[in-house]
Design goal:
heterotetramer; A mainly alpha (230); B mainly alpha (58); C mainly alpha (234); D alpha/beta (243); A: 230 residues; mainly alpha; 0% strand; D: 243 residues; alpha/beta; four-stranded antiparallel sheet
Chain lengths: 230, 58, 234, 243
Amino acid sequence: MNRTKIARLMLALGGVLTTAAFFMTFFWANASTFPDGRIDFGQKIFYFHVPVAEASFLVFFFTAFYGVKFLMTKDRRFDTRAKIATEVTLLFVLLTMATGILWTKVAWGVWWLWEPRLTTYFILTLLVIAYFVLRNSVEDEERRAVYASAFGILAFIDAPISFFITRWAESVHPVVLAGGEGSGLETPMLITFIVAQVGMLMLGYAFYEMRLHEEEIKERLEALKVTVGG
Amino acid sequence: MQDIYSQVMPQAPYVVVAYGLIWVGLIGYVALVFSRLKKIEKEISVVESAVKRREKSE
Amino acid sequence: MASASWRQFKAILRKDLVMEMRTHEMITSMGLYAILTMVVYQIALTEAGEALDVRLVMPGLIWVAFIFMSLLGLNRSFVHEKDQGCIDALLLSPVDRPVIFFAKFSGNLLFLLAVEVLSLPVFAFLFLQGREGISNPIWLLGVVMLAASVGISGVGTLLATMTVNTSGKDILLAVVFVPLMYPLLRAAVGATFAAVIGGPGSIETFWSWMAWVAGFDVIMLLVAFGLYEFVIGA
Amino acid sequence: MGETPLTGNALEVRGLTRAFGARKALDKVDFDLPEGAFLSIFGPNGAGKTTLVKILTTLLNPSAGSVRVCGLDVVTDAVELRHKIGLISHNPLLYADLTAEENLLFFAEMYGIPDAEERVRELLESVELDHRRLDLTRTFSRGMLQRLSIARALLHRPDILFLDEPYSGLDPHAMDILDTLIAQIRGEHTFVMISHDLSKGLELCSHALILANGKVVMFDERDAIDEAAFRETYRATVGMGVA
């Protein structure tokens, strides 16, 4: 089975799992309640907001990983991979921001709050955007690849800071999955979350492979054109 | 039942919009990539057949 | 070998200092920028009047001035290397690339610190007269300024080396630099605030923020140092 | 000058390829150049001339193949090799806000030259700039800058000199001076020159090389070259697409 087929399979599976998680969210997972017993319907956003956010961290790791590999080998394919990983990160980061803002409004009554998690995640968004701004302003292909790799590595340092900030600093952002008192989920909730998370990661992988496939065809096209032109 | 609706209703729009955005984002991205893939696959088949024709004529 | 690197380090640093003494390009533009920022602050704060305790916002305001000021200096610092292709002549000479990094970094750090030290008294003179001064010993401010400027210059030197080769370099440096600097700036403002406002426990708060600054400095300098060879050769 | 291992060859280029993705700036370039020779490299824009010189001067690494300059490998012995090469470009590579003397002293420090002041004075005299040594190079004319940049390139007594279109932008008088200077140092060094000017390049060289699309189209000794045929080959390469 070749990579394209695996990617298609992952896309299908990811689609099925996320759709299943979507229905589980509304028809199976326990309704979360406020301390006073009222139903917290806004909590439903959690089942997709968190998986997308975690996926964005994970995919962004590959930006740095392939950045390092590129700098060590100067092989253009690694730069292409880093670029695609960052592109998928951008998609996930934007979805995280959008759902996050909506949840903030539901839970805290405001659209935005400058609290540590939100702030660092906002910075992460800016870094991912800056990565593409940087790429677009370098003319020479190889130089572009080197600069983008270097910046990707630097930018990734911010990702763990954003991830762990709720554990380090005083933050009102909930830490659901870290254990500790009052956190934790009931079984149907946890299963729904896990299904959504796995589905989202599969989608991320599928997106990455599909884009890679596209870039590889582009490169083949370019190579063909060079041979025809020469 | 009435009670549950009154609790859920004010929060519902935000949840609906959130899931709407997620689905539009994910499906839109897939559609975008697929349409680009189609276009580029067409382009490469054109170039490839041109290369073959040239090789034959040489 | 080590002595050769030291000699080359001194040569590059001295050259940058001599050229700066001659043209005053960086110091003047950064200094003027600092003064102008203060004029703008006056406008921004004027309606709040006496009700506002300036000391509460001062730590943030000075770091806003410093970060944008540093952008100006960093942008200039590679222009004369690029102007007549001097960077090629430098790279052609038998010098280890990290030496270039440390020399440029030291130069940038010196210029930044010089303008910071000059503009801080002006700030105090314009905004803090007739108000309570700085609660904790003033040398604490020196500690934050030094430590944060190390991080700013280190990452800034690496990024400026990149952006000098790009189109739209001035704005690009800001776009890539400011978000990367966020953790450092946040901690620097925290430490400065603790130093200025004082009160019980402020010294501990100061040092815990300083631990953040120091951690950022160490990590970022190591990464920047490791990446420099790739970036300058590209 | 230096203690070069006696391979007899100043340049040994084997299968040199420089590629990024599908694009090949240099494609399996092979040639040898004996010591003391004067090589002129011709080729249209985008042929790979600048890339070739950048690799020979250790500024870029090859993607494949091996390159030895003065018997030293350009990748593994880069730092040692840099002591043996000098570059004169169409860009002066000088700091505009330093004086002529400061410029040379700075580079002398970078190379670790003993008795730097003595050496700098001697060089400034030989390029006839000793009267302007305390002036900023910002105030220099194009020709003066080029003379000073020759002095800079010769500071560390390199074995091999690279000339990257040194004549471009020079007025006839400055060209004459450059001719004289090259003639003076001709015997002591190996030369590699990139040139757009066929007549000038052929007049000076002992070996000629034509690059097009990153490939060597022609490489021969000057004496073996029929000038008319050479011009024809060169003209044909200019028509070849810039890939």
